[in-house]
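User: Can you help me understand a structure? I only have the sequence.
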Amino acid sequence: MALIVQKYGGTSVRDAERVMNVARRVTEAYKAGNNVIVVVSAQGDTTDDLIEKAAEINPRASKREMDMLLATGEQISISLLAMAIERLGCPVISLTGWQAGFRTDSKYSNARIKTIDTERINMEIDRRRIVVVAGFQGINRYDDITTLGRGGSDTSAVAIAAALHADVCEIYTDVDGVYTADPRICKNAYKLDDISYEEMLELASLGANVLHNRSVEMAKKYSVKLSVRSSLNTNEGTYVKEVSKVEKMLVRGVTRDNDCARISLCGVENTPGKAFQVFDMIAKSGISVDLIIQSIGNGKTKDISFTVAESQLDIALKLLEEHNSVINAEKITSEKDVSKVSIVGAGMVNNSGVAAGMFEALYDAHINIKMIATSEIKISVLVDQKDAERAVSAIHDKFLSK
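Assistant: Let's start by predicting it. Here is the structure, written out as tokens:
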């Protein structure tokens, strides 16, 4: 008897028809003799609708109260799915995040899971019930409801699978699996049979929206076998696991991230510690930095450019301008309407010429590169947003055309 954890996103349960479709899939797995735990997100656009309702009342509502509000979306989903499973004649119980034993820290709206008390879930499994758990949420030491932030339901599912040593954690979405690129951009993109944790983590961090990076990080840490599948058909998905066929493909995927903005500090004093002052200040404000370039300068000054999420641009600029007496930059500039385009592949480690091939593809497509960043298994470039889709297609054609 296998223990299967299934996770269904908001589009998979957006209306009554799809809720019943999920219920049928869950009960099929149960009737095959498996123990089944289901983690569910809020229906469709429920979370966005709740955020809009909050803005009508108080645009600056506290994160604690926002968590109290947003957690209700998943509570609706679990109860409706449990009702659907009941209708199909199987024993079932729905549990909120805190009923399921999720304990988190107190960082409202972006909490981290600290522990999971599995006693209640194990008790329900022993009774041969299907357990439907609200994703995205938990409870902190003050008994306050917390939410896990973007992609939190993926993280909830992987955390349960890790805590209970599940045989597999199936992530159901509206796509068939992990593709070499976004099929909406690249018509010749194709599904991968498998991908390594490292590659999936990079793709998730670089703009691929199939899995959230925190869930992949946790799956790698606890060796949780992941399967990314479609909730709309029975096709075989993509397995995310420790090793994959890296020797056959130098590049495994191409991604695009439009949530980027560039900041440049021009004419910064060329003395030890300046970069530390800049990035320590930014880090303490909770702003994540991605691509970084520092010029050699002319001896007395240097330029430092880096990217942040576009949503954090105004905060970062205000912070830098307020502390420019310490940074002492001659000029602070910024640029929106840029995109980060990346290639990922563990096979790149021992193969030269991948970067040159990527730059050649962009040259042939007449696309200018603004910034470059590399690691062992990824290369990222910053380009104008208007060129991003063409960049993805050109790079995909270079490395991944069949």
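Now, to help you interpret it: The radius of gyration is 23 Å. The CA atoms of residues 38 and 132 lie 5 Å apart. Let me know which part you'd like to focus on.
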